[in-house]
Specification:
Elements (H helix, E strand, L loop, with lengths): L4 H16 L3 H14 L1 H15 L6 H26 L1 H7 L7 H13 L3 H4 L2 H4 L6 H9 L4
Length: 145
Protein backbone atom coordinates (compact mmCIF):
# COMPACT_ATOMS: atom_id res chain seq x y z
CA UNK A 1 0.00 0.00 0.00
CA UNK A 2 1.05 3.56 -0.63
CA UNK A 3 0.02 4.57 2.87
CA UNK A 4 -0.23 2.49 6.02
CA UNK A 5 -3.87 1.34 6.37
CA UNK A 6 -3.81 2.40 10.03
CA UNK A 7 -3.00 5.97 8.97
CA UNK A 8 -5.78 5.96 6.37
CA UNK A 9 -8.19 4.69 9.02
CA UNK A 10 -7.07 7.34 11.50
CA UNK A 11 -7.47 10.10 8.92
CA UNK A 12 -10.90 8.78 7.91
CA UNK A 13 -11.91 8.71 11.59
CA UNK A 14 -10.75 12.31 12.01
CA UNK A 15 -12.80 13.45 9.00
CA UNK A 16 -15.84 11.60 10.34
CA UNK A 17 -15.38 13.07 13.79
CA UNK A 18 -15.11 16.60 12.45
CA UNK A 19 -18.23 15.96 10.38
CA UNK A 20 -20.17 14.96 13.47
CA UNK A 21 -19.18 18.32 14.94
CA UNK A 22 -20.59 20.18 11.93
CA UNK A 23 -17.27 20.84 10.24
CA UNK A 24 -17.74 19.04 6.90
CA UNK A 25 -17.27 22.32 5.01
CA UNK A 26 -13.91 22.74 6.72
CA UNK A 27 -12.93 19.19 5.79
CA UNK A 28 -13.88 19.77 2.14
CA UNK A 29 -11.84 22.96 2.23
CA UNK A 30 -8.84 21.08 3.66
CA UNK A 31 -9.19 18.44 0.95
CA UNK A 32 -9.40 20.96 -1.90
CA UNK A 33 -6.57 23.00 -0.38
CA UNK A 34 -4.44 19.85 -0.15
CA UNK A 35 -4.83 18.86 -3.78
CA UNK A 36 -4.49 22.44 -5.02
CA UNK A 37 -1.21 22.93 -3.20
CA UNK A 38 0.23 19.44 -3.54
CA UNK A 39 3.64 19.48 -5.18
CA UNK A 40 3.12 16.03 -6.69
CA UNK A 41 0.96 17.36 -9.53
CA UNK A 42 3.69 19.81 -10.49
CA UNK A 43 6.29 17.04 -10.41
CA UNK A 44 4.11 14.74 -12.52
CA UNK A 45 3.47 17.55 -15.01
CA UNK A 46 7.18 18.29 -15.30
CA UNK A 47 8.00 14.58 -15.74
CA UNK A 48 5.31 14.13 -18.41
CA UNK A 49 6.28 17.34 -20.21
CA UNK A 50 9.92 16.21 -20.47
CA UNK A 51 8.74 12.81 -21.70
CA UNK A 52 6.45 14.29 -24.34
CA UNK A 53 9.13 16.75 -25.50
CA UNK A 54 11.56 13.92 -26.13
CA UNK A 55 12.06 13.04 -29.83
CA UNK A 56 11.16 9.43 -28.99
CA UNK A 57 7.75 10.45 -27.60
CA UNK A 58 6.09 9.23 -30.80
CA UNK A 59 7.12 5.66 -29.93
CA UNK A 60 4.73 3.70 -27.75
CA UNK A 61 7.62 1.67 -26.28
CA UNK A 62 9.22 4.88 -25.02
CA UNK A 63 6.11 6.70 -23.84
CA UNK A 64 4.06 4.00 -22.13
CA UNK A 65 6.52 3.19 -19.31
CA UNK A 66 6.68 6.90 -18.46
CA UNK A 67 2.90 7.21 -18.48
CA UNK A 68 2.64 4.12 -16.29
CA UNK A 69 4.90 5.73 -13.70
CA UNK A 70 2.48 8.62 -13.30
CA UNK A 71 -0.79 6.80 -13.97
CA UNK A 72 -0.25 4.05 -11.38
CA UNK A 73 0.80 6.55 -8.74
CA UNK A 74 -2.18 8.76 -9.55
CA UNK A 75 -4.57 5.83 -9.16
CA UNK A 76 -3.08 5.01 -5.76
CA UNK A 77 -3.27 8.64 -4.64
CA UNK A 78 -6.87 8.92 -5.79
CA UNK A 79 -7.85 5.72 -3.97
CA UNK A 80 -6.20 6.90 -0.75
CA UNK A 81 -7.84 10.33 -0.92
CA UNK A 82 -11.22 8.72 -1.62
CA UNK A 83 -10.64 6.44 1.36
CA UNK A 84 -9.77 9.32 3.66
CA UNK A 85 -12.23 11.94 2.44
CA UNK A 86 -14.97 9.64 1.09
CA UNK A 87 -17.48 10.71 3.77
CA UNK A 88 -17.54 14.12 2.14
CA UNK A 89 -19.31 12.60 -0.88
CA UNK A 90 -22.31 11.38 1.08
CA UNK A 91 -22.39 13.92 3.87
CA UNK A 92 -21.45 17.19 2.21
CA UNK A 93 -20.59 17.42 -1.50
CA UNK A 94 -23.94 16.29 -2.90
CA UNK A 95 -25.88 18.74 -0.70
CA UNK A 96 -23.90 21.66 -2.04
CA UNK A 97 -23.55 20.37 -5.61
CA UNK A 98 -19.79 20.15 -5.26
CA UNK A 99 -17.67 17.57 -7.10
CA UNK A 100 -17.18 14.29 -5.32
CA UNK A 101 -13.70 13.60 -3.95
CA UNK A 102 -12.59 11.25 -6.75
CA UNK A 103 -14.02 13.53 -9.44
CA UNK A 104 -12.24 16.58 -8.06
CA UNK A 105 -8.91 14.72 -7.88
CA UNK A 106 -9.45 13.42 -11.43
CA UNK A 107 -10.30 16.86 -12.82
CA UNK A 108 -7.33 18.38 -11.02
CA UNK A 109 -5.03 15.78 -12.57
CA UNK A 110 -6.48 16.40 -16.04
CA UNK A 111 -6.08 20.15 -15.72
CA UNK A 112 -2.62 20.12 -14.14
CA UNK A 113 -0.95 17.25 -16.02
CA UNK A 114 -2.89 16.39 -19.18
CA UNK A 115 -4.11 19.69 -20.60
CA UNK A 116 -1.06 20.50 -22.71
CA UNK A 117 -1.29 20.76 -26.50
CA UNK A 118 1.96 18.81 -26.56
CA UNK A 119 0.11 15.80 -25.19
CA UNK A 120 -3.01 16.28 -27.32
CA UNK A 121 -0.91 16.40 -30.52
CA UNK A 122 1.22 13.39 -29.66
CA UNK A 123 1.13 10.67 -32.32
CA UNK A 124 0.71 7.87 -29.79
CA UNK A 125 -2.38 9.56 -28.32
CA UNK A 126 -3.86 10.15 -31.77
CA UNK A 127 -3.73 6.50 -32.83
CA UNK A 128 -7.16 4.98 -33.43
CA UNK A 129 -6.18 1.49 -32.26
CA UNK A 130 -4.15 1.11 -29.10
CA UNK A 131 -3.06 -2.20 -27.63
CA UNK A 132 -1.55 -1.06 -24.35
CA UNK A 133 -4.07 -1.05 -21.49
CA UNK A 134 -2.48 1.84 -19.57
CA UNK A 135 -2.50 4.04 -22.64
CA UNK A 136 -6.16 3.16 -23.26
CA UNK A 137 -7.05 4.06 -19.67
CA UNK A 138 -5.21 7.39 -19.81
CA UNK A 139 -6.76 8.33 -23.15
CA UNK A 140 -10.25 7.50 -21.96
CA UNK A 141 -9.82 9.09 -18.54
CA UNK A 142 -8.59 12.42 -19.84
CA UNK A 143 -10.57 12.68 -23.09
CA UNK A 144 -8.02 11.88 -25.75
CA UNK A 145 -10.10 9.56 -27.83
Amino acid sequence: DALDPKLVSACRAFIGSEGRHGKMADMYHIFSHFISNSVIFHEWDRYLRVSFEDPKACQEAFLVPRLEQVWLRFKRLRAILEGIFGDLNTRFAWKHQLPQVGDLVHEHMRRRCFSSELIARNEVFQQAIIKDETLKQVKLAFGFG
